[in-house]
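As a warm-up, study this chain.
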Amino acid sequence: MLVDADETSWLSWNIYAADFLAETGATRIPVDDGGITGPAFFDHVRRLRRPLVNSPKGQTTPLPPDLVQRPIVAPAPYWTWSLVWRRTESQPSVLAAAKALTGDRGALTFDNGVAWLPSDDPYRPG
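Now compare it with the structure written out below.
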């Protein structure tokens, strides 16, 4: 898992990575070139000749044809997001957006046998 020396740009990713590394025993690979995403990330995959965890932060570069992408299944790392709005909200546009994004799913849960969430994630059980 790549960890970048640039704490300004990559602090949240580096904290996430450190937690994942500590809990899974994955290998920490320090870089100092911003190569957590984009073409530089793919260059690291080629150079290191090993699988690397792909950061969800800003990865908009299409996968090159010489590389293969596979999901991580055990443990499957999740980077959670939350939608927050005022409990007393009455504006129809805000309520419609919240409904469109969340549907009527009730509380979301993660499969503890497969999912991995950082230790400080608000959705991590117990």
